[in-house]
Amino acid sequence: MKNTFVMAGVMGWPVSHSRSPVIHNHWIKQSGLTGAYGLFPVKPSQLETAIRGIKALGIAGCNITLPHKVNAMQFVDWVDPLAIRMGAINTIVVQADGALHGFNNDGYGFIQSLREAQPNWKANSGPAVVLGAGGAARAVIVALIDSGATEIRLLNRTLSKAEDLARDFGEAVRAFPWVERENALHGAALLVNTTSLGMHGESPLVIALNQLPVSAIVSDVIYIPLETPLLAAARLRGNITVNGLGMLLHQARPAFKAWFDVMPEVTSELRDTIIATL
After folding, report:
1. Per-residue three-class SS string for 108-119
2. Which of 6, 159, 201, 252 is the most buried (most CB within 10 A)?
3. pLDDT tens for residues 9-67?
4. Largest alpha-carbon pair distance within the chain?
5. Alpha-carbon gap, residue 227 to 240, rounded angstroms
6. Which residues, 6+ apart, have CB-to-CB distance to 43 below 8 Å?
7. Beta strands across the sheet bearing 35-41
8. What are the tens digits of pLDDT across the range 102-145?
9. How far is it, in rounded angstroms, from Cα 194 to Cα 172?
10. In what order do the strands lie in the sheet with 240-242?
11. Three-class SS of residue 240?
12. CB distance 153 to 184 below 8 Å
């Protein structure tokens, strides 16, 4: 492997903001490998052509980011059952026979980020509250259920979207109206924001944390800024907080392993390198 040049990258539109090249090229250098990871700006109208071309280019595979995560599923040869449940893929791996296999490592990244912050974290230690009903929420819910969560309270600004998502997962997930978001925190062991509220340039998430136990973990999948108003408020009252950077870094590890045959580590050096770009 060390003498073979391996190429991978990330497809998105736009994609210039992606931190994935910084992460993967750091690991390539650290592991002494010969290879590179680049940016592939692909318009939605060109997605099928781009994915079909992966094989012809001889690259090992690629990450898939917004807005392609859902549509890319139809253009690969096989989709991992976990990714089917999540309704999206974020990684394509070219197999030895040239077949394109699709995976979703977002849930893995999310769970690893929680365990990094709280090594003794257990998914069944109490109710989880998930805000949002988009792709990130679906990945988080699947990951929590597979880790043993038995009660997930789902809230979204559009109630029907939360109800549709809850229906997909059965009795472990219950949808509540957005106005109930503060009452839903009562007795919760985990609060996860998967909405864009609190992201740089977006409105803040308005939620009082009075009813949330101080023992609960508060997670935000956003990493720009590193500390959203939600996380700042939670930290000040004594909750353990987890930003979206850990999820970003850890979801990259299985993909790197699939392409470069090395399972990399998330080090403080890598974290600092990414933070410097934010």
Report:
1. HHHHHHHHHHCC
2. 252
3. 999 999 999 999 999 999 999 999 999 999 999 999 999 999 999 999 999 999 999 99
4. 58
5. 12
6. 13
7. 35-41, 6-12, 61-64, 91-94, 100-103, 78-79
8. 999 999 999 999 999 999 999 999 999 999 999 999 999 999 99
9. 18
10. 173-177, 152-156, 128-131, 190-193, 217-220, 240-242
11. strand
12. yes
**3: confidence class by pLDDT, cuts 50, 70, 90:** low
Of 149, 91, 158, the C-alpha closest to 125 is: 149
What is the helix, strand, coil percentage profile of the chain, to 5?
40, 20, 40
Phi/psi for 94 (5° steps) reads -80, 125
- 14-18: long-range contacts at Cβ-Cβ below 8 A with a sequence spacing of 24 or more? 14/41, 15/39, 15/40, 15/41, 15/42, 15/65, 16/41, 18/65
Q: What residues form DSSP beta bridges with 156?
A: 177
C-alpha 212/C-alpha 235 separation (Å) is 12
Chain centroid to Cα 139, Å, comes to 7
Counting DSSP H helices and E strands in the chain, the numbers are 9, 12
The residues annotated with a catalytic role in the active site are 69
Q: Are 152 and 145 within 8 A, CB to CB?
A: yes
Matching residue, tokens 């977006």: 202
In order of 41, 87, 88, 217, 225, the CA distances from 23 in angstroms are: 18, 25, 22, 26, 18
For position 261, what pLDDT does the model report? 97
Count CB neighbours of 177 within 10 A. Answer: 14
Residues in the chain: 278
Coil vs helix vs strand at 159: helix
Checking DSSP bridges between strand 61-64 and strand 35-41, what pairing results, if any? unpaired
- Which element (helix H / strand E) includes 6? strand 6-12
